[in-house]
Amino acid sequence: MLFAVEGRLSGIRLKGVDQAHMNRLIIQAIIKMCAKSILLTTIIGVVIGIIGYVNKWNSSIAYSNAFFLAGCLVIVAGASSRLGAGQEWTYFQLLNAESFRGMSSGERANFIVNASSSISTVILGLLSGILLILLSAIATYLL
Known about the structure:
By secondary structure, this protein is mainly α. The chain has one domain (18-142). It has five helices and three strands; from the N terminus they run βββααααα. It has a three-stranded antiparallel β-sheet with strand order 1-2-3, with no helix packed on it. Strand 1 (4-5) and strand 2 (8-9) form a beta hairpin.
């Protein structure tokens, strides 16, 4: 009788076990990124709402313009974060493969995601910016 231990059968790797684990990690990362984007958009929306209330904006155009401007600024901020991290990426590429020897596939994936966080910042900025621009279009009709 053969027992599966950590995706292995008596020294032979089971196909698809590590792939399924990596797919699950990728899906979790995408869901986490979308949740961060929605949270950031909500925070920025609340700040815009408070500014509009304090400044007594009466028209939907003022709110729409504020959401659009905030969306554009968030996209630019996300993209500029990647430019600033260009120097850090060269150091990451110089890492020796020996450092990955003691890590599991999940730990390696988390390490790579953390090391390339500037790309995730670009994606976060892009998603949040797009959501804010969509809120700008919605604000024109609702307010």
